[in-house]
User: Fold this.
Amino acid sequence: MRSPNVMVLNAAGINCNDETAHAFELFGAPVEQIHISELESGDRNLADFQILALPGGFSDGDAIQAGRTLGLQLRTQLAYELNDFVDRGGLILGPCNGFQILTETGLLPTGRIEPGQPKKLSLVRNTHGRFVDNWQYLLTEKSRCLFAQPEDIGELIELPIANGEGREVGDDTSNLVNELRTMGQIVFRYATKEGLPASTFPDNPSGSEYGITGVCDPSGQILGLMPHPERFVDTKQHPNWRRGEGQVAFGGLIIEQMIKVAKEI
Assistant:
């Protein structure tokens, strides 16, 4: 079965594009790094790809708000192409800044860009007001996500994070959280090392209600998460691998499962 073609979107300020490309190539998927200007000009087309990855970094210097400028650019210039990509069964992965971008477009949590509609989900400054660069434990929820189920990647996993704006809010955050829970769109929650849901710092580094740190759309094709799966695709990337920790590269399991699902669509 042919491996899916992967587009890693590039733009000013993005700095995790090479790691993201390497992660997909490691598991056999052909990858091209495409600058957003090539999509806007029509020189390249999303129709040639089955997976779209929006990498982490600081797109446009996180001007105004993290991910806001590039998210609005995609929302206003490429809404039709992105909606068509999802309608055709394309999968989208957005770690960290990619998650922030997806919320700005409206693709998360709704799964569709509706230019006239206000966004439902925002990622704002962590409650403690600081940038956090750490390894965190996560609970994998039973959700709609097609490529991040607990039986495939593990119920309690560990991934690195690096963000200052990772707290998920809405106009009415509690109602939004309840809606996401009801719809099965919560994919990852922060946890303690013992596997208990985390509500306070440092186990919940952003202060997100219900510990949410990963969300999918209703179709399960689009996943945004604050952790960086592309930074844990080899066990030696774990800071304590010499002490026998990090024996499962959970980020690699997510990438590998995403490629597997894309082959079947």
